[in-house]
Amino acid sequence: MTELLPNHLAGRWQTGGDPGTPLFDPVLGTELVRVSSTGLDLEAAYAYARDEGGPALRAMTYAQRATLLSSIVEALKANRDRYFDIAQANSGTTRPDSAVDIDGAIFTLGQYARWGASLGDRHWLADGETVPMAKDGSFLSRHVRVPTRGLALFINAFNFPAWGLWEKAAPALLSGVPVVAKPATATAWLTQAMVADVIAAGILPAGALSVVCGGARGLLSPLQPFDVVSFTGSADTAALIRSHDAIVRRSVRVNIEADSLNSALLLPDAQPGSDSFDLLVREVVREMTVKAGQKCTAIRRVFVPASCYAAAGKAIAAKLARITVGNPRNEAVRMGSLASRQQWENVRAGTAALRRHAEVLHDGAAVPLLDADPAVAACIGPTLLGASRREAAGVVHDIEVFGPVATLLPYEGLPDALEQIRLGQGSLVASIYTADAALAGQAALALADSHGRLHVVTPEAAAVHTGHGNVMPMSLHGGPGRAGGGEELGGLRALGFYHRRAAIQGAGAVTDLLDGAAPTWSAPGH
Questions:
Q1: SS3 assignment, position 408
Q2: What are phi and psi of 199, to 5 degrees?
Q3: What is residue 474's three-state secondary structure?
Q4: What average pLDDT does the chain have?
Q5: What does DSSP say about strands 125-132 and 139-147: parallel, antiparallel, or unpaired?
Q6: How many CA atoms lie within 13 A of 171 on its CB side?
Q7: Which pLDDT score, from 0 to 100, does residue 513 have?
Q8: pLDDT greater than 80 at residue 298
């Protein structure tokens, strides 16, 4: 039997009490390792994190905890090559796609280390200015933020086993809150390996970082009122979490990132042959193929003026036709596999549902595979669909296929485009392509209420923009409605989820002690 990966809980390594669930190479179909959480005492593990990890972290200042993040960065860099090997084997990703996850995680940690250093030798943060509550100014109120005395439970998705952990853990640890990570089972190996390397390096206090791999049974039950939960995954699972007693009765705070039908919008000025038109085509192809379209921020719907529909479909399909798909170990392969054969089945079923309402502009199922057995590998080529008739496009705004699939849709005038985009019921990101900066600003503001991020690409930003689907620590990650209603990152504002806000009222002698004692909540990085 293959190796059973241990869990790190209550300050020690523990294995589950059964043979475990196997993790597979999604291209070769071979078993890699196993994971199990059966029989683990999660209540004791959570108590240890709160009682040991929490006080040890809170005893440090923000600057000292920032130094811990910097040390984690160095530990991960030292093992970086091994992480690429694990990602290729367990996630089926090419090296550039693995870098999005692994190097993205390291970059985000480093950025929070730099921001944390700017907070200095403080243990709390001032939130706003002192406000007088008496006419003579002798009684005042001041808001402060202090770290929560609970733990942070992260239930993460399969598509980003590295970045998904560290983009959440960076602000949590910087805030002084211990972390319990629960990676998705299918790709848990990379998360477990990273945690193991950090533990082995002796960087963090005991109880500050834990990892539990395997089933999620009993994961929420031991949570207490000052704990927080951050979940990334399906809307169905999110609904179960929101209905759990820990959230409903104990008011455990929860952050959700769920489904998202993200959009790319070509504004009316950007006709075929223009720089903006070419930028949209390039970005759509990139978002469909990076990590085989398995990104929560990937473009799912592409909106173009009706007069551009045929040209856009032809241009995108032509670029997709040059994408090679198969075993990521082959240097000629540009797009690897989906994360699992189950995910392959889901993508095929979702694509079939969309195809009943749309025409096929480029058929991914017909793409031959390089160095991969189609009967075994979770590989599938990118598929571009087109919904040229408005009355047939309804399902396109309801079904998210979590893979290399996107649908092209025409619009008649900008108000029509904005109305159709909003049919997604809330998204993480929409990107806008135009040479008209004023029109771009108007469109972005019109969509701001239904999106977490608006990514505007004009020709002058062509060489420097970070990409529609790249989640940078400087900007908010999250979205309203269907996207889950959560918020992550966005500079130091991410620390807010791991802090409690309180008002301190009293005489000037009391509030004067707060003035100048800590950076305000509008510190650099917001």
A1: strand
A2: -65, -45
A3: coil
A4: 94
A5: antiparallel
A6: 25
A7: 62
A8: yes
Give the pairing of strands 4-5 and 7-9: unpaired
Distance between CA 23 and CA 182 in Å, rounded?
Answer: 15
Burial class (CB in 10 A: 0-12, 13-18, 19+), 500: middle
Nearest residue to 338 via CA among 384, 387, 379: 379
Determine phi and psi for 144, rounding to 5 degrees.
-130, 160
Domain boundaries, the chain: 4-258+486-511, 262-473
Locate tokens 């984690």: which residue?
Answer: 72
167, 257, 400, 487: the catalytic one is 257
296 labelled catalytic: yes
Distance CA(379)–CA(482), nearest Å, equals 28
Place of tokens 């390996």: 193
Q: Does domain 4-258+486-511 have CATH number 3.40.605.10?
A: yes
Q: What is the 3-state secondary structure (H, E, C) of 337-399?
A: CCCCHHHHHHHHHHHHHHHCCCEEEECHHHCCEECCCCCCCCCCCCEEEECCCHHHCHHHHCC
Tokens of 412: 């008649």
- Assess whether pLDDT exceeds 90 at residue 390: no
| Structure token pair of residue 501 | 């806000």
Residue 357 has a CB neighbour count (10 Å cut-off) of 17
User: How big is the chain by its Cα radius of gyration, in Å?
Assistant: 24
- Residue 523 — pLDDT band, cuts 50, 70, 90? very low
Has 257 been annotated as catalytic? yes
Surface-to-core class of residue 507, CB atoms within 10 Å of its CB (0-12 exposed, 13-18 middle, 19+ buried): exposed
Please give the single-letter amino acid code of residue 286: R
In the DSSP assignment, the letter for residue 10 is: T
| Separation in Å, CA 264 to CA 361, 403, 419, 420, 469 | 17, 16, 14, 12, 11
Classify domain 262-473 at the CATH superfamily level.
Aldehyde Dehydrogenase; Chain A, domain 2 (3.40.309.10)
* Identity of the residue numbered 128: G
> What integer pLDDT is reported at residue 216 of this predicted model?
84
Q: Tokens representing 140?
A: 């005042």
Q: Which amino acid is at 169?
A: A
Q: What confidence tier does 507 reach under pLDDT thresholds 50, 70, 90? A: confident
Distance of CA 333 to the CA centre of its chain: 25
